[in-house]
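Example 3.2
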Amino acid sequence: MPKQKTKKTIAKRFKRTATGKILRYRAGHSHLLTGKSSKRRRRLRKAAVLRGTDRRLVEPGLPG
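Structure, written as tokens:
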């Protein structure tokens, strides 16, 4: 059986940690930042851990 290919669209948006968790980046940090508070912009910079239902959808596209 051939090896499973990585879904490149998923690989660009998510990252797997050493412990196996999947990180995602927060929406809303690409433009219109002047109207957002510093606290909010700072929070948007950090990655968040992907949970439950979404993880089930993303994991098959990130082998290895």
